[in-house]
Structures are given as structure tokens and as C-alpha cells.
Design goal:
single chain; mainly alpha; elongated
Length: 192
């Protein structure tokens, strides 16, 4: 590993808390393999992962999740870092989205319209909320698919160059330095 990569990933990991396999991958400075999406996901799943990524972080005045390479990031984590149970839960979540869309209009999530996709994702969000309310299921089961996909998209986006340089703003020291400040204007000086 190159020193620059180690510093970059160390700063990312120390700067924010992430959970499970995603944090293990970041600690190991997992490379993102372009084109990996097509090897772990079939065509429908690949389309679904891309659509979900863009739904969670859409293109606005800054690039969205697809432009940041989030689908490749997700493929890397699912294929190389998720354990068998996490991988099963992820693929079951994609399947649940397809089943929801199929029950409504006979389509799969990958070809459904935007409104149906949003409805299906909201259903997954509701299931995640119910999961977190029930303490017994939290200890016994994998986190819900909605939690998985949301975490993967957010971590993938903000650990990308696009997310780090175009979405976030870097301010090394907030405020300004005034070496000749008149403390009589503010009274006592605060300590931290």
C-alpha cells in the first residue's frame, strides 16, 4: 500500500464512524474495481443498484452517486467484504424490491417507473423503522436491506473523489485568526 493511500483511508476511517464490513473494507483500503458491478450482479441487479444509488444521492448542483462510482463501490463491498449472511440479506433486499414492484404492476424494480421505485424504497424504509423499534429482532437478525443500501451509498459517495472534493467543502480551520484582537470588546476569554 502506498503511503498516500494509507493516509487517505486512515483519515476517512478516523473522521467518521461506519459499521460492519464497510469499515473493515475501508480499514483495509479496499480498491474499487471498475467493472466489478457486472461480475457480482446480473443485469437487472446492476440496474437496480445504480437506480438505488442515484435515488439516495441524486445529481443536483453536484454529481450524484452514479458519477461518483458508487455502484462499483457497492459491488466491491458485497463481493469482497460482506460475509455470507450479509450478502444473502443484500440480495434478498433486491429480490424484495422486485417482488413489491411485481405485485403492483408486474414489473421488476429495474424497469419500474420512478414513482413505483420510490414507493418500493419507502416500503423498505418503513420495514427498517419497524425493525429498529423491536429490540428482539435487532439482536437476532441482520440489519434491514434499507440500512445496508443507505450505508453503502453514503459511505461510497463520501469516500469518492467526487464526494470528498465537490460535495464537501474543506475548511482546515473554521473562523479567522486575528492576532490583534481587542478582548475588551467581549469581556472574558473563553477556554475550551
Amino acid at each position: 500500500m502506498y503511503r498516500r493511500d494509507l493516509i487517505k483511508f486512515s483519515g476517512l476511517v478516523l473522521g467518521g464512524a461506519v459499521s460492519g464490513s464497510v469499515s473493515k473494507a475501508l480499514l483495509a483500503a479496499a480498491p474499487i474495481h471498475s467493472g466489478l458491478v457486472s461480475t457480482i450482479f446480473n443485469a437487472d441487479q446492476q440496474t437496480s443498484v445504480s437506480a438505488l444509488s442515484e435515488m439516495i444521492i441524486p445529481t443536483t448542483d453536484t454529481p450524484g452517486a452514479i458519477q461518483a462510482g458508487v455502484p462499483d463501490f457497492i459491488a466491491t463491498i458485497v463481493s469482497e467484504w460482506y460475509n455470507l449472511d450479509e450478502r444473502k440479506a443484500f440480495f434478498q433486499g433486491l429480490n424484495d424490491l422486485d417482488q413489491y414492484c411485481s405485485a403492483v404492476d408486474g414489473s421488476t424494480f429495474s424497469v419500474a417507473g420512478d414513482s413505483l421505485r420510490l414507493e418500493a424504497l419507502r416500503k423498505q424504509e418503513q420495514l427498517a423503522k419497524e425493525f429498529h423499534i423491536n429490540e428482539n429482532t435487532r439482536a437476532a437478525e441482520q440489519p434491514p436491506f434499507f440500512d445496508q443500501i443507505k450505508e453503502l451509498v453514503v459511505v461510497g459517495y463520501y469516500s469518492s473523489e467526487v464526494g470528498a472534493k465537490q460535495e464537501w467543502r474543506y475548511l482546515p480551520m473554521p473562523g479567522q485568526y486575528d492576532g490583534d484582537f481587542d478582548f475588551s470588546r467581549v469581556g472574558r476569554q473563553w477556554t475550551s
